[in-house]
Amino acid sequence: MKIHYLTAMLAVALVIVHIMVRIVQGFSDSLLFDNVVANY
Questions:
Q1: What is the spatial distance between Cα 37 and Cα 35, in angstroms, rounded to a whole number?
Q2: What pLDDT is stored for residue 36 in this prediction?
Q3: What is the rounded CA–CA span in Å between residue 33 and residue 30?
Q4: Helix extents (H) in the chain
Q5: DSSP 32
Q6: CA-CA distance, 9 to 2, in Å (whole number)?
Q7: pLDDT 10s digits, 1-40
Q8: How far apart are CA 21 and CA 3, in angstroms?
Q9: Residue 34 to residue 3: CA distance in whole angstroms
């Protein structure tokens, strides 16, 4: 269950980071997944 819990937390963290990138970068640019990945 620990692995599943860590996976869930990681997914939530990625969503939060994605939302933050979206706010900073602009909504339309961040809709492109390649663009988001390129920022990391």
A1: 6
A2: 59
A3: 7
A4: 2-25, 27-30, 33-38
A5: S
A6: 10
A7: 688 888 999 999 999 988 887 777 765 554 566 665 666 6
A8: 27
A9: 27
CA dist 32 to 5, 19, 22, 39, Å? 28, 13, 10, 11
| Token pair for 37 | 């990945």
Task: Please give the structure tokens belonging to residue 36.
Answer: 């988001």
Widest Cα–Cα separation across the chain: 37
- Tell me if 36 sits within 8 A of 21, measured CB to CB: yes
30 token code pair:
């961040």
18 CB-near residues (< 8 Å, 6+ apart): 30, 36
Q: What would the two tokens of residue 14 be? A: 């990625």
